[in-house]
Amino acid sequence: MKIMIINGPNLNLLGKRENDIYGDETFNDFFTTLQFKYKEVELSQFQSNIEGELIDKIQEVGYTYQGIILNAAAYTHTSVGIADAVKAIQTPVVEVHISNTYKREEFRHKSFVAPNTKGVIVGFGLQSYELALQSFLTEEGSDGILNL
């Protein structure tokens, strides 16, 4: 199974940025742990601060991967382009957010992406990504194993 994690703007600063909200672990460290724990999955990651690059990556993997875990970050609340890219592809997408966006500013309560996804996971820190990954592994017909 091939799963792509796509991260949007400022997520390259995890471990340095607003640790009270996002924690002190870098995404690369977390990703290495995730790869080790889920060896049966071919996990890839991509991060960009540029909206068009995120759209390009969604389109690139949207017909060949079995799942996309997408944290579009601030673009979640502003990008019709990313929402349209998710709607246009065949690969299922799970939207994730590290923080509970509903406990934050009101503009973060609206997602343009969510209506085009198979689901949304918010507020569980970096574990949100693992929960999204598990959702792909536990689908009907999947040969994946759920490790809690």
From TrEMBL:
Residues annotated to bind substrate: 71, 77, 84, 98-99, 108
Name the record gives this protein: 3-dehydroquinate dehydratase
Lineage: Bacteria, Pseudomonadati, Bacteroidota, Flavobacteriia, Flavobacteriales
Listed EC numbers: 4.2.1.10
Gene Ontology MF terms in the entry: 3-dehydroquinate dehydratase activity
Function (record text): Catalyzes a trans-dehydration via an enolate intermediate.
Gene Ontology biological process terms in this record: amino acid biosynthetic process; aromatic amino acid family biosynthetic process; chorismate biosynthetic process; quinate catabolic process
Residues of the active site: 22, 97
UniProt entry tagged with the keyword Metal-binding: no
Gene name for this UniProt entry: aroQ
Pfam families registered for this protein in UniProt: DHquinase_II
